Amino acid sequence: MRTITLIPGDGIGPEVAFAAQRLIDASGAELNWEIQNAGACMIERFGTPLPESVIYSIRRNGVALKGPITTPVGEGFRSVNVALRKELDLYVNLRPVKTYRGIPSRYENVDIVIVRENTEDLYVGIEHMVGGDAAESIKVFTRKGCERICRYAFEYARREGRKKVTAVHKANIMKCTDGMFLGIARDISKDYPDIKFEEMIVDAMCMKLVQSPESYDILVLPNLYGDIVSDLCAGLVGGLGFAPGANIGNDCAVFEPVHGSAPDIAGKNVANPIAMMLSGVYMLRYIGEIEAADRIEKAISYVLSEGTVKTSDLGGSFGTKEFTDYMISRL
Ligand code: NAI
């Protein structure tokens, strides 16, 4: 039986993580769960928000399902999420964005997969003050980092029967960093003549996504643009409540929703657990539990299209727990 590391996280994390766990257990997938905690609550006991035991557990099991973890803004400890991605070299951040019937959205037929580089760029955190009145942050791109993310995007496209990869950049301004990324994307595209290749400057990309998102298939982006554009895309299909994500490396993978810990609604039993549940669907597919994954995704589609059982972000009155109970009854 496969063991999965479950990191509930904080804020709404435990509410949505345990909801997803219950649904997955009910889906027929045979899994053991190893619960590991990370975040501010661990600092007092371990002196760090990310204890070594969490990393060991993910390395040992190869797969984790993770709830969001709060990062203090402008001060305090550095992001646990970024540290986890770096420590485990989870270089791909996969964020699928899809319209579901029943979800309020201005668009139809959106089905985009964002392939975001997850370890480099301004997120390496090399920042310093220059005197008291200036600050610098260093943007790091490597050939290896660009090659493996672009290669992953094309391989994913081929494996999933996708038609087009769009490389998103700002190489007109950042000729070294983004220029290298774009050059590598162009070179790698030549190995995949069956997949259409397109390039787009990030600002134009944002406009086009708002105008005609159904024209896009797979987007491959450096870390910062990927972070921003994936929230934009989540907004196209009804918001963060429906945006699942995966962080994937060569040896292990961590599946988590795009949304954060939502401290404004934590502990109130109102959080929408669907993004967490969909992250679980992608996790099940990753470990080969395809039937269970399909069963859950169908139940989610079905419940959404029924349109009567909804959490409050969708204008409904069901709590996280009651919504999950109903979802389980529809598996
Ligand atoms: P957020 O995603 O937590 O919340 C943004 C807005 O969306 C809030 O109004 C919130 O109530 C709502 N929202 C988010 N998820 C929801 C859900 N499942 N159901 C219903 N409403 C939902 O973003 P914010 O406020 O910028 O970040 C809060 C904290 O989360 C920060 O400390 C941030 O660093 C952390 N964070 C952690 C992530 C992770 O662990 N992977 C990812 C993003 C943010």
Written account of the structure:
This protein is α/β, with parallel strands linked by helices. It folds into two domains: 1-95 and 242-331, Isopropylmalate Dehydrogenase (3-Layer(aba) Sandwich); 106-236, 3-Layer(aba) Sandwich (Isopropylmalate Dehydrogenase). Helix content is 39%, strand content 18%. It has helices at 13-26, 43-46, 52-61, 80-87, 143-159, 177-189, 202-211, 223-236, 274-286, 290-306, 320-329, and strands at 2-7, 31-35, 63-66, 92-98, 111-117, 127-130, 134-137, 164-169, 196-201, 218-221, 246-248, 253-255. The strands form two sheets. A ten-stranded mixed sheet has the order 2-1-3-12-11-4-5-10-8-9, with helices on both faces. Strand 8, helix 6 and strand 9 (196-201) form a beta-alpha-beta unit. The longest helix has 17 residues, at 143-159. It is globular. 47% of the residues are buried.
